[in-house]
Design brief:
150 residues; mainly alpha; 4 helices; 2 strands; globular
């Protein structure tokens, strides 16, 4: 969407935010931006979206997770439809072990490759739900991130 909150490329800066016209130019431009901000004494906190994707609900396109392993990556209701705790048509199954690893790896990549200093999680409450949508007292993903070196 316009704001970049319907994620498909979790490890790539959104090209529409960049001035660069060349394919992949947004990567170099973002790296330079972070370096320049750091030189000015400004830390960079990246706004990330791991709660839903651009695939939407049942009628949405297959772009990534749906085609890889729908039942692992998304919270599904007993009838197979998508749980929609995000208001965006689907909800990522953040506390599944495979998805937790994906999220941790993505965050580590942004920190190592782009040198961002922190993260702001869109609709972070989704990260505290079980695969059936139940809020968890001790969500595994939150516990892992609390102890991650990122």
């Amino acid at each position: 969407n316009y704001w970049g909150y319907s994620t498909v490329g979790f490890n790539a800066p959104k090209a529409g935010y960049a001035a660069a016209g060349a394919q992949g130019g947004q990567v170099d431009e973002f790296k330079q931006l972070v370096m320049d901000l750091h030189k000015a004494g400004i830390q960079v906190v990246l706004d990330v979206v791991f709660n839903h994707t651009a695939e939407g609900g049942e009628d949405g396109p297959t772009l990534s997770f749906r085609g890889i392993d729908n039942r692992v990556f998304y919270m599904l209701l007993p009838d197979g439809s998508y749980a929609n705790y995000t208001g965006c048509g689907n909800t990522v199954n953040c506390n599944h072990p495979v998805v937790r690893t994906f999220i941790r790896n993505a965050l580590a990549y942004w920190a190592a490759e782009f040198h961002v200093d922190g993260f702001r999680f869109d609709l972070a409450s989704v990260m505290a739900r079980d695969s059936d949508g139940t809020p968890l007292a001790d969500p595994p993903l939150i516990e892992e991130l609390a102890h991650a070196p990122v």
